[in-house]
Design brief:
Blueprint: E1 10-12, H1 25-37, E2 43-45, E3 52-56, H2 60-74, H3 90-108, H4 124-131, E4 133-134, H5 135-141, H6 146-149, H7 157-178, H8 180-201, E5 207-208, H9 212-228, H10 238-262, H11 270-294, H12 299-320
Antiparallel strand pairs: 1-3, 2-3, 4-5
Helix pairs in contact: 1-2, 3-7, 7-8, 7-9, 8-9, 8-11, 8-12, 9-10, 9-11, 10-11
Length: 321
């Protein structure tokens, strides 16, 4: 029934058999904005499901064409976010961690690993002196290769196996999502940048070592990658939003782990863990942003990235020796 306040010659915008049905209530605000921007007079009556919109009869056709365009736009299907395929490479990730354990055995002179041909026969303290993150030598002599070599050193076996057990699930999750080569490359970048920031922040007498900076970097990379994956387009699918939420939850979990474990003990370098987490989030977010435009690297490129990461570690140790 037409309200008395509405002039007789005004038309309800949704009447007639072949005309659009009532829009969802949340669209009325948008319709009013459109009409106002086109200088079309309107009257809105009722409330809830009884909302009615009236316009002058002479402007009915113009108003209807404007509003139908808005309604058609709102009915367009959202872009579907497709989860990237996973890589079955957990055994390769564990193999890399095994190499890290064997390298520790070389330094600590475990059995047959004590005197390997091609490697200098140095005591463990000398290996630590040559490769640890010595802030004084980094800042004074520009030995930035220590940001990489320090990631491969551990003070003792407890430190080593703690990092391996804590980091293995996150390394596997990341490499399953992006591939082994890219995953290792991103982890090395995050750990290296984390150590570089730590060297900038710490005083000259500070010395640190350990793979834990890269492990917190792994959590950051995974968080940043998942947070930006499926996010950033004009309209978002629910799956894309879910991916963003997973990334933020993962970052929150990493921060919680940092709070519980990353600052525990007198010898724990909490700043390195924090810088690793932040560096990883930036590295992972950047990698996700690039992958949205160029797709994830092919198997060949993935292999080359993995070899590049290994080559960078070898090169840095060459410089250290």
């Amino acid at each position: 029934m037409r309200p008395y306040s509405v002039p007789r010659f005004w038309r309800m915008i949704d009447d007639g058999e072949k005309r659009p049905t009532l829009p969802p209530p949340h669209l009325f605000d948008l319709w009013i904005t459109i009409l106002a921007s086109r200088n079309i007079p309107y009257m809105l009556t009722g409330r809830g499901n009884k909302l009615r919109l009236y316009v002058p009869a002479l402007l009915e056709r113009q108003a209807r064409s404007e509003l139908e365009a808005v309604l058609a736009e709102s009915r367009k299907p959202r872009p579907v976010y497709i989860e990237p395929p996973t890589h079955n490479n957990a055994h390769w990730v564990l193999s890399v961690l095994l190499l890290l354990i064997l390298w520790h055995g070389v330094r600590m002179h475990w059995g047959f690993l004590a005197h390997l041909p091609g490697l200098p026969d140095l005591p463990s303290e000398e290996w630590s002196r040559l490769g640890s993150l010595d802030v004084f030598r980094v800042k004074t002599f520009g030995e930035w290769y220590r940001c990489v070599t320090a990631l491969t050193l551990h003070a003792d076996s407890q430190h080593l196996f703690g990092n391996v057990l804590f980091g293995a699930p996150f390394l596997i999750l990341l490499c399953r999502r992006v591939g082994l080569g890219l995953g290792l490359f991103l982890i090395l970048l995050a750990g290296t940048f984390g150590n570089a920031l730590n060297a900038w922040y710490r005083p000259a007498g500070h010395i640190s070592l350990g793979f834990s900076t890269a492990l917190f970097g792994t959590v950051g990379v995974l968080s940043g990658f998942m947070a930006l994956q499926g996010w950033g387009s004009r309209t978002q699918s629910d799956t894309g939003k879910l991916s963003w939420r997973r990334g933020i939850l993962l970052l929150a979990a990493g921060t919680g782990i940092l709070a519980m474990l990353g600052t525990e003990g007198d010898k724990t370098d909490y700043a390195a863990h924090l810088f690793g987490l932040l560096s990883g989030f930036i590295v992972g977010g950047t990698a996700s942003w690039i992958s949205r435009r160029t797709a994830l690297p092919s198997p060949v490129i993935n292999t080359l990235l993995g070899l590049s990461a290994a080559g960078l570690v070898v090169l840095c140790w060459k410089l250290a020796l």
